[in-house]
Predict the 3D structure of the following.
Amino acid sequence: MCGAVPHGGVVISLSEVLPGLLGDQAPHRGDYPLRPESFRIGRLGRFQVFEGCDEPSSRLFRFRDSGRLLYAWAVFGPHPSHAVRTQAEAVLNSLRIAPLR
């Protein structure tokens, strides 16, 4: 994801935080609000997606779903259109998270 996202493109990444593996460095569950009823891209920011990798058009979502701590990145190419942003929201809203067993 560190390479340039093409104009008109978007990359969506979903990751899970496993507190048991992080020990004392594990985040609080409170840092991850319940999954929103609907994901909205809203204002894009400049976030560090990976160490040394700045993407100028990104949106980070931290959330809890089915007892899991998750975060999703939506990383856009230059000047994302309304249609691309809407498609990214649709992908995020289509996620179905299975509970841990």
